[in-house]
Give the backbone structure.
Amino acid sequence: MSEDHGHEHPKHELSYYAKRIYAIRDLLLEKGVITEKDIQCQIEYQEARSPANGAKLIARAWIDPVFKQRFIADPKAACAEMGIDATAINEFVVLENTEKIRHMVVCTLCSCYPRPILGRPPDWYKSFNYRQRAVADPRGVMCEFGLELPDDVEVRVHDSTADIRYIVLPLRPRGTEGWSEKDLAKLVTRDSMIGVMNALPAIPEEFQ
Amino acid sequence: MNEATGSFKPGDRVKVKFEDRPGHIRTPWYIRGKIGRIERVYGDFLNPEMLAFGRDGLPKKTLYLVAFNHSDVFGKSAGTSDKVLVDIYDHWLEPTA
């Protein structure tokens, strides 16, 4: 590999995997398989997708029951309608929470995640700890996120091991009647769409 | 979703084959040998066991959403109706009474 290859490497000590990634990148560039511009475009594409996409969909589903039906029946079409590009996903399923049923999503085999809707998964989602405990002790994990559920609520953990990507449709917080779609979207957190916690409360906890 | 050619239908009781052979079997170990119920038929998809080795993935295999009682898989659970749901392909399942 040549010493002078026109881009900066981080100055701090790199982990084993980071070193490997940089070495592979340099080889791909040197052999002309990809260009610097390809990498930059891909980074911009990855960064452009964020939980804000999911929040828009959820907020719309909360205020428009007909849209909610479409979102559940054909999530990709509902995304297209909202200007969100979900064509990269093979199949996409919406899990609707109710007072009696709560869904939670994990990928125990790797880190499958609905990236076009939620962006990149958080580091904890990819950790061995979460992947193991989400299936073995989902209530314990939810508890650590601040969500304590009564025993008569059914917890449904989805292990996304194949071609389907899942997003949770959280319950609409109490006291949000008449709120605008934009304000509602602010209550929809990434973690509530993974299902480890509720959407944010309408009134901040310190004032309840 | 896609057309489904597999043999199971919603409500069927199925057992996850306990296979320990080389290859790309995407059934997590914790459900191998366990009994669950077909919750939903997702349709036919390219066979991941072949795709993993650079093949074409044909013929396609039917993908199911299979529900397991949490307590059947992990023992005692706080919520008695809690479930673990896993996406599993037809050829990794077998019928059971």
Q: What stands out?
A: The interface with chain B takes residues 90-91, 108-109, 135-139, 149, 151-164 of chain A (CB under 8 Å). The first helix of chain A runs from residue 16 to 30. Residues 16-48 of chain A form one domain.
